[in-house]
Amino acid sequence: MEHFRVVIIGGGPIGIACGLEAKKKGLDYVILEKGPIVNSLFNYPQNMQFFSSSEKLEIDEIPFISKEAKPKRNEALEYYRRIVSSNKLNIRLFEKVEKVEKTNGSFSIATSKQSYTADKVVVATGFYDLPNTLNIPGEDLPKIAHYYNDPHYYAHQKLAVVGASNSAIDAALECWRKGAEVSLIIRGNEVGQRVKYWVRPDIINRIEEGSIKAYYNSVLKEVRPNEIVVDTPEGTITLENDFVLALTGYKPNFDFLTRMGVKLSDDEKKLPQYDPETMETNVSGIYLAGVICGGMETHKWFIENSRIHAKLIIASILKEEEISKT
Ligand SMILES: Cc1cc2nc3c(=O)[nH]c(=O)nc-3n(C[C@H](O)[C@H](O)[C@H](O)COP(=O)(O)OP(=O)(O)OC[C@H]3O[C@@H](n4cnc5c(N)ncnc54)[C@H](O)[C@@H]3O)c2cc1C
Protein backbone atom coordinates (compact mmCIF):
# COMPACT_ATOMS: atom_id res chain seq x y z
CA MET A 1 0.00 0.00 0.00
CA GLU A 2 1.51 3.33 -1.04
CA HIS A 3 1.56 6.23 1.41
CA PHE A 4 1.36 9.95 0.53
CA ARG A 5 1.22 12.97 2.76
CA VAL A 6 -1.58 14.34 0.60
CA VAL A 7 -4.00 12.47 -1.62
CA ILE A 8 -5.97 14.77 -3.93
CA ILE A 9 -9.21 13.30 -5.29
CA GLY A 10 -10.13 14.74 -8.69
CA GLY A 11 -7.89 15.94 -11.52
CA GLY A 12 -9.99 18.93 -12.59
CA PRO A 13 -8.49 22.43 -12.76
CA ILE A 14 -8.63 22.82 -8.99
CA GLY A 15 -7.27 19.35 -8.16
CA ILE A 16 -4.41 20.12 -10.53
CA ALA A 17 -3.86 23.48 -8.82
CA CYS A 18 -3.64 21.65 -5.48
CA GLY A 19 -1.13 19.15 -6.90
CA LEU A 20 1.01 21.92 -8.34
CA GLU A 21 1.01 23.82 -5.05
CA ALA A 22 1.84 20.65 -3.08
CA LYS A 23 4.73 19.94 -5.44
CA LYS A 24 6.06 23.50 -5.17
CA LYS A 25 5.99 23.28 -1.39
CA GLY A 26 7.74 19.90 -1.32
CA LEU A 27 4.78 17.85 -0.10
CA ASP A 28 4.59 14.24 -1.23
CA TYR A 29 1.24 13.99 -3.08
CA VAL A 30 -0.77 12.15 -5.68
CA ILE A 31 -3.80 13.25 -7.71
CA LEU A 32 -6.32 10.46 -8.36
CA GLU A 33 -8.63 11.10 -11.32
CA LYS A 34 -11.36 8.73 -12.48
CA GLY A 35 -11.17 9.89 -16.10
CA PRO A 36 -8.70 11.74 -18.33
CA ILE A 37 -6.99 14.99 -17.27
CA VAL A 38 -9.71 17.60 -16.51
CA ASN A 39 -12.42 15.04 -17.17
CA SER A 40 -15.31 17.48 -16.67
CA LEU A 41 -13.93 19.91 -19.23
CA PHE A 42 -13.29 17.02 -21.60
CA ASN A 43 -17.01 16.23 -21.39
CA TYR A 44 -18.16 19.81 -21.96
CA PRO A 45 -19.74 20.59 -25.37
CA GLN A 46 -17.19 20.50 -28.19
CA ASN A 47 -17.61 24.15 -29.15
CA MET A 48 -18.03 25.49 -25.64
CA GLN A 49 -16.57 28.92 -24.88
CA PHE A 50 -15.77 29.94 -21.31
CA PHE A 51 -17.37 33.04 -19.82
CA SER A 52 -14.06 33.82 -18.09
CA SER A 53 -11.19 35.35 -19.97
CA SER A 54 -8.15 33.10 -20.18
CA GLU A 55 -6.02 34.84 -17.55
CA LYS A 56 -8.78 34.19 -14.99
CA LEU A 57 -8.52 30.45 -15.62
CA GLU A 58 -4.76 30.43 -15.06
CA ILE A 59 -3.25 28.32 -12.35
CA ASP A 60 -0.38 29.78 -10.39
CA GLU A 61 -0.03 32.60 -12.93
CA ILE A 62 1.17 30.23 -15.65
CA PRO A 63 0.14 32.15 -18.79
CA PHE A 64 -2.91 30.85 -20.65
CA ILE A 65 -2.80 32.14 -24.21
CA SER A 66 -6.02 31.85 -26.19
CA LYS A 67 -7.01 33.08 -29.65
CA GLU A 68 -9.90 35.15 -28.34
CA ALA A 69 -10.24 36.79 -24.93
CA LYS A 70 -12.56 33.97 -23.79
CA PRO A 71 -10.96 30.59 -24.45
CA LYS A 72 -12.65 27.58 -26.00
CA ARG A 73 -12.85 24.11 -24.44
CA ASN A 74 -10.04 22.75 -26.65
CA GLU A 75 -7.69 25.52 -25.60
CA ALA A 76 -8.45 24.82 -21.93
CA LEU A 77 -7.74 21.10 -22.44
CA GLU A 78 -4.43 22.05 -24.03
CA TYR A 79 -3.58 24.46 -21.18
CA TYR A 80 -4.32 22.15 -18.26
CA ARG A 81 -2.72 19.15 -19.98
CA ARG A 82 0.46 21.16 -20.54
CA ILE A 83 0.52 22.16 -16.87
CA VAL A 84 0.33 18.50 -15.85
CA SER A 85 2.98 17.40 -18.36
CA SER A 86 5.51 20.19 -18.07
CA ASN A 87 5.39 20.17 -14.28
CA LYS A 88 5.49 16.36 -14.22
CA LEU A 89 2.59 16.28 -11.79
CA ASN A 90 1.98 12.98 -10.06
CA ILE A 91 -1.48 12.21 -11.42
CA ARG A 92 -3.03 8.76 -11.88
CA LEU A 93 -5.77 8.68 -14.49
CA PHE A 94 -8.80 6.43 -14.92
CA GLU A 95 -8.56 5.55 -11.25
CA LYS A 96 -11.76 6.20 -9.32
CA VAL A 97 -11.69 6.75 -5.57
CA GLU A 98 -14.36 4.56 -4.07
CA LYS A 99 -13.87 4.87 -0.34
CA VAL A 100 -12.08 7.10 2.15
CA GLU A 101 -11.83 5.97 5.75
CA LYS A 102 -10.16 7.58 8.72
CA THR A 103 -8.38 5.24 11.09
CA ASN A 104 -6.07 6.29 13.92
CA GLY A 105 -5.53 9.79 12.55
CA SER A 106 -4.61 8.78 9.00
CA PHE A 107 -6.69 7.86 5.96
CA SER A 108 -7.09 4.71 3.91
CA ILE A 109 -8.23 5.29 0.35
CA ALA A 110 -9.58 2.52 -1.85
CA THR A 111 -9.68 3.12 -5.59
CA SER A 112 -10.79 1.11 -8.60
CA LYS A 113 -7.15 0.00 -8.94
CA GLN A 114 -5.43 -0.13 -5.56
CA SER A 115 -5.30 1.19 -2.00
CA TYR A 116 -3.39 4.07 -0.46
CA THR A 117 -2.83 5.65 2.91
CA ALA A 118 -2.51 9.39 3.44
CA ASP A 119 -2.07 11.96 6.20
CA LYS A 120 -4.40 14.42 4.46
CA VAL A 121 -7.10 14.16 1.80
CA VAL A 122 -8.21 16.94 -0.52
CA VAL A 123 -11.59 16.41 -2.16
CA ALA A 124 -11.84 18.28 -5.48
CA THR A 125 -14.45 16.13 -7.19
CA GLY A 126 -16.50 18.92 -8.79
CA PHE A 127 -20.17 18.67 -9.71
CA TYR A 128 -20.41 17.43 -13.28
CA ASP A 129 -20.99 13.71 -12.71
CA LEU A 130 -24.59 13.76 -11.53
CA PRO A 131 -27.23 15.60 -13.58
CA ASN A 132 -30.33 17.04 -11.91
CA THR A 133 -32.88 14.62 -13.26
CA LEU A 134 -36.47 15.56 -14.12
CA ASN A 135 -38.03 12.44 -12.61
CA ILE A 136 -40.76 12.21 -15.24
CA PRO A 137 -42.12 9.33 -17.29
CA GLY A 138 -39.93 8.59 -20.30
CA GLU A 139 -36.72 9.98 -18.79
CA ASP A 140 -35.02 6.66 -19.45
CA LEU A 141 -35.72 6.77 -23.20
CA PRO A 142 -32.52 6.89 -25.30
CA LYS A 143 -33.68 10.10 -27.02
CA ILE A 144 -33.25 12.14 -23.82
CA ALA A 145 -29.80 13.30 -22.71
CA HIS A 146 -28.47 15.36 -19.82
CA TYR A 147 -25.17 16.13 -21.54
CA TYR A 148 -24.80 17.94 -24.84
CA ASN A 149 -21.84 17.53 -27.13
CA ASP A 150 -22.21 18.25 -30.85
CA PRO A 151 -25.01 20.10 -32.71
CA HIS A 152 -24.50 18.05 -35.88
CA TYR A 153 -26.33 15.14 -34.24
CA TYR A 154 -29.58 17.12 -34.04
CA ALA A 155 -29.63 18.56 -37.58
CA HIS A 156 -33.11 18.32 -39.19
CA GLN A 157 -34.58 16.94 -36.00
CA LYS A 158 -37.27 18.23 -33.66
CA LEU A 159 -35.31 19.05 -30.52
CA ALA A 160 -36.65 20.17 -27.15
CA VAL A 161 -34.12 21.86 -24.88
CA VAL A 162 -35.09 22.08 -21.21
CA GLY A 163 -33.40 24.82 -19.17
CA ALA A 164 -32.60 28.52 -19.34
CA SER A 165 -29.00 28.81 -18.26
CA ASN A 166 -25.74 28.85 -20.22
CA SER A 167 -25.63 25.16 -21.18
CA ALA A 168 -29.24 25.09 -22.41
CA ILE A 169 -29.03 28.37 -24.30
CA ASP A 170 -25.71 27.49 -25.99
CA ALA A 171 -27.17 24.14 -27.08
CA ALA A 172 -30.42 25.68 -28.35
CA LEU A 173 -28.59 28.27 -30.45
CA GLU A 174 -25.97 25.92 -31.86
CA CYS A 175 -28.49 23.22 -32.78
CA TRP A 176 -30.84 25.74 -34.39
CA ARG A 177 -27.90 27.04 -36.46
CA LYS A 178 -27.24 23.49 -37.68
CA GLY A 179 -30.83 23.05 -38.79
CA ALA A 180 -32.64 21.60 -35.80
CA GLU A 181 -36.20 22.72 -35.05
CA VAL A 182 -35.74 23.88 -31.48
CA SER A 183 -38.31 24.30 -28.71
CA LEU A 184 -37.01 25.77 -25.47
CA ILE A 185 -38.86 24.80 -22.31
CA ILE A 186 -38.22 27.28 -19.52
CA ARG A 187 -39.58 26.87 -16.00
CA GLY A 188 -39.34 30.60 -15.18
CA ASN A 189 -40.50 33.62 -17.09
CA GLU A 190 -37.24 34.58 -18.81
CA VAL A 191 -33.89 33.43 -20.19
CA GLY A 192 -31.48 33.09 -17.24
CA GLN A 193 -29.83 36.31 -16.08
CA ARG A 194 -26.46 34.55 -15.79
CA VAL A 195 -26.39 33.62 -19.48
CA LYS A 196 -23.19 35.03 -21.06
CA TYR A 197 -23.75 38.72 -21.80
CA TRP A 198 -22.90 38.32 -25.48
CA VAL A 199 -25.16 35.26 -25.92
CA ARG A 200 -28.31 36.53 -24.15
CA PRO A 201 -29.30 39.10 -26.82
CA ASP A 202 -28.73 36.44 -29.49
CA ILE A 203 -31.21 33.97 -27.96
CA ILE A 204 -33.74 36.68 -27.14
CA ASN A 205 -33.68 37.87 -30.76
CA ARG A 206 -34.05 34.31 -32.09
CA ILE A 207 -37.04 33.79 -29.82
CA GLU A 208 -38.62 37.13 -30.73
CA GLU A 209 -38.25 36.50 -34.47
CA GLY A 210 -39.83 33.04 -34.00
CA SER A 211 -36.79 31.00 -35.10
CA ILE A 212 -36.69 29.24 -31.74
CA LYS A 213 -39.97 28.61 -29.96
CA ALA A 214 -39.76 29.36 -26.24
CA TYR A 215 -42.32 28.04 -23.75
CA TYR A 216 -41.99 30.17 -20.59
CA ASN A 217 -43.43 29.20 -17.19
CA SER A 218 -43.61 25.69 -18.60
CA VAL A 219 -42.63 22.26 -17.37
CA LEU A 220 -41.84 19.10 -19.32
CA LYS A 221 -44.21 16.43 -17.95
CA GLU A 222 -43.56 13.38 -20.08
CA VAL A 223 -41.31 12.14 -22.86
CA ARG A 224 -42.72 9.65 -25.36
CA PRO A 225 -40.98 8.04 -28.35
CA ASN A 226 -42.33 10.58 -30.89
CA GLU A 227 -43.68 13.42 -28.76
CA ILE A 228 -43.40 15.29 -25.49
CA VAL A 229 -46.05 16.58 -23.08
CA VAL A 230 -45.55 20.08 -21.69
CA ASP A 231 -47.52 21.97 -19.03
CA THR A 232 -47.79 25.59 -20.20
CA PRO A 233 -49.76 28.56 -18.81
CA GLU A 234 -52.23 27.93 -21.68
CA GLY A 235 -52.73 24.31 -20.65
CA THR A 236 -51.08 20.97 -21.34
CA ILE A 237 -49.80 20.57 -24.90
CA THR A 238 -48.25 17.76 -26.90
CA LEU A 239 -45.38 18.50 -29.31
CA GLU A 240 -43.90 16.26 -31.96
CA ASN A 241 -40.37 15.46 -30.86
CA ASP A 242 -37.26 13.49 -31.84
CA PHE A 243 -34.80 14.40 -29.08
CA VAL A 244 -34.74 16.06 -25.66
CA LEU A 245 -31.74 17.79 -24.10
CA ALA A 246 -32.52 18.22 -20.41
CA LEU A 247 -29.81 20.72 -19.42
CA THR A 248 -31.06 21.53 -15.94
CA GLY A 249 -27.74 21.51 -14.12
CA TYR A 250 -25.66 19.06 -12.17
CA LYS A 251 -24.93 18.36 -8.52
CA PRO A 252 -21.97 17.13 -6.48
CA ASN A 253 -21.81 13.57 -5.27
CA PHE A 254 -23.07 14.29 -1.74
CA ASP A 255 -23.13 10.62 -0.83
CA PHE A 256 -19.37 10.40 -1.44
CA LEU A 257 -18.83 13.32 0.95
CA THR A 258 -21.14 12.15 3.72
CA ARG A 259 -19.71 8.63 3.61
CA MET A 260 -16.35 10.10 4.62
CA GLY A 261 -18.05 12.00 7.45
CA VAL A 262 -18.33 15.49 5.95
CA LYS A 263 -21.45 17.21 7.28
CA LEU A 264 -23.87 19.07 5.00
CA SER A 265 -26.31 21.84 5.93
CA ASP A 266 -29.86 20.60 6.54
CA ASP A 267 -31.46 22.94 4.00
CA GLU A 268 -31.78 22.42 0.26
CA LYS A 269 -28.38 24.08 -0.35
CA LYS A 270 -26.57 21.09 1.23
CA LEU A 271 -23.54 23.23 1.98
CA PRO A 272 -20.60 21.13 3.16
CA GLN A 273 -19.12 22.17 6.47
CA TYR A 274 -15.61 23.64 6.16
CA ASP A 275 -13.49 26.48 7.50
CA PRO A 276 -13.16 29.05 4.68
CA GLU A 277 -9.70 30.08 5.88
CA THR A 278 -8.16 26.61 5.75
CA MET A 279 -10.77 24.70 3.64
CA GLU A 280 -10.63 21.92 6.27
CA THR A 281 -13.95 20.18 6.84
CA ASN A 282 -15.50 18.99 10.08
CA VAL A 283 -13.40 15.83 9.59
CA SER A 284 -9.92 16.96 10.54
CA GLY A 285 -7.48 16.20 7.72
CA ILE A 286 -10.12 16.28 4.95
CA TYR A 287 -10.12 19.47 2.87
CA LEU A 288 -12.47 20.67 0.13
CA ALA A 289 -11.41 22.51 -3.01
CA GLY A 290 -13.22 23.91 -6.03
CA VAL A 291 -16.84 23.88 -7.06
CA ILE A 292 -17.81 21.16 -4.58
CA CYS A 293 -17.61 23.74 -1.77
CA GLY A 294 -20.90 25.32 -2.90
CA GLY A 295 -23.10 22.26 -2.38
CA MET A 296 -26.21 22.66 -4.55
CA GLU A 297 -25.13 26.23 -5.32
CA THR A 298 -22.96 25.03 -8.16
CA HIS A 299 -22.66 28.52 -9.67
CA LYS A 300 -21.06 29.92 -6.50
CA TRP A 301 -17.57 28.54 -7.00
CA PHE A 302 -15.90 28.17 -10.37
CA ILE A 303 -12.33 28.03 -11.65
CA GLU A 304 -11.87 31.77 -11.53
CA ASN A 305 -12.68 32.21 -7.84
CA SER A 306 -11.68 28.80 -6.44
CA ARG A 307 -8.08 28.61 -7.76
CA ILE A 308 -7.13 30.20 -4.44
CA HIS A 309 -8.28 27.09 -2.53
CA ALA A 310 -5.06 25.28 -3.54
CA LYS A 311 -2.85 27.81 -1.79
CA LEU A 312 -5.10 28.01 1.30
CA ILE A 313 -5.10 24.22 1.73
CA ILE A 314 -1.40 23.62 1.24
CA ALA A 315 -0.50 26.58 3.49
CA SER A 316 -2.81 25.22 6.16
CA ILE A 317 -1.33 21.70 5.95
CA LEU A 318 2.21 23.08 6.19
CA LYS A 319 1.31 25.33 9.11
CA GLU A 320 -0.26 22.44 11.00
CA GLU A 321 2.81 20.27 10.40
CA GLU A 322 5.04 23.12 11.62
CA ILE A 323 2.98 23.42 14.81
CA SER A 324 3.00 19.67 15.46
CA LYS A 325 6.82 19.61 15.15
CA THR A 326 7.24 22.26 17.87
C1 LIG B 1 -20.56 24.63 -19.71
C2 LIG B 1 -19.74 25.17 -18.57
C3 LIG B 1 -19.02 26.36 -18.72
C4 LIG B 1 -18.23 26.86 -17.68
N1 LIG B 1 -17.52 28.03 -17.85
C5 LIG B 1 -16.73 28.48 -16.86
C6 LIG B 1 -15.95 29.69 -17.00
O1 LIG B 1 -16.02 30.37 -18.00
N2 LIG B 1 -15.18 30.08 -15.97
C7 LIG B 1 -15.08 29.37 -14.81
O2 LIG B 1 -14.32 29.77 -13.92
N3 LIG B 1 -15.79 28.24 -14.63
C8 LIG B 1 -16.62 27.80 -15.62
N4 LIG B 1 -17.37 26.66 -15.45
C9 LIG B 1 -17.31 25.97 -14.17
C10 LIG B 1 -16.02 25.20 -14.06
O3 LIG B 1 -15.81 24.40 -15.19
C11 LIG B 1 -16.05 24.35 -12.82
O4 LIG B 1 -16.33 25.19 -11.75
C12 LIG B 1 -14.65 23.73 -12.66
O5 LIG B 1 -14.51 22.67 -13.56
C13 LIG B 1 -14.45 23.35 -11.26
O6 LIG B 1 -13.22 22.68 -11.16
P1 LIG B 1 -13.07 21.52 -10.12
O7 LIG B 1 -11.66 21.05 -10.27
O8 LIG B 1 -13.56 21.97 -8.79
O9 LIG B 1 -14.12 20.42 -10.60
P2 LIG B 1 -14.16 19.58 -11.96
O10 LIG B 1 -13.56 20.31 -13.07
O11 LIG B 1 -15.55 19.09 -12.10
O12 LIG B 1 -13.19 18.36 -11.63
C14 LIG B 1 -13.54 17.35 -10.75
C15 LIG B 1 -12.80 16.10 -11.18
O13 LIG B 1 -12.98 15.09 -10.20
C16 LIG B 1 -13.09 13.85 -10.87
N5 LIG B 1 -13.75 12.92 -9.93
C17 LIG B 1 -15.01 12.96 -9.46
N6 LIG B 1 -15.25 11.96 -8.61
C18 LIG B 1 -14.10 11.25 -8.53
C19 LIG B 1 -13.71 10.07 -7.81
N7 LIG B 1 -14.54 9.45 -6.98
N8 LIG B 1 -12.44 9.61 -7.98
C20 LIG B 1 -11.57 10.25 -8.81
N9 LIG B 1 -11.89 11.35 -9.52
C21 LIG B 1 -13.14 11.85 -9.37
C22 LIG B 1 -13.90 14.16 -12.10
O14 LIG B 1 -13.72 13.19 -13.11
C23 LIG B 1 -13.34 15.52 -12.49
O15 LIG B 1 -12.27 15.46 -13.41
C24 LIG B 1 -18.16 26.15 -16.47
C25 LIG B 1 -18.90 24.97 -16.31
C26 LIG B 1 -19.69 24.48 -17.34
C27 LIG B 1 -20.48 23.22 -17.12
UniProtKB/TrEMBL annotation:
<dbReference type="InterPro" id="IPR036188">
    <property type="entry name" value="FAD/NAD-bd_sf"/>
</dbReference>
<keyword id="KW-0285">Flavoprotein</keyword>
<dbReference type="InterPro" id="IPR023856">
    <property type="entry name" value="Bdr"/>
</dbReference>
<dbReference type="Pfam" id="PF13738">
    <property type="entry name" value="Pyr_redox_3"/>
</dbReference>
<dbReference type="InterPro" id="IPR050097">
    <property type="entry name" value="Ferredoxin-NADP_redctase_2"/>
</dbReference>
<keyword id="KW-0560">Oxidoreductase</keyword>
<dbReference type="GO" id="GO:0016491">
    <property type="term" value="F:oxidoreductase activity"/>
</dbReference>
<protein>
    <submittedName>
        <fullName>Pyridine nucleotide-disulphide oxidoreductase</fullName>
    </submittedName>
</protein>
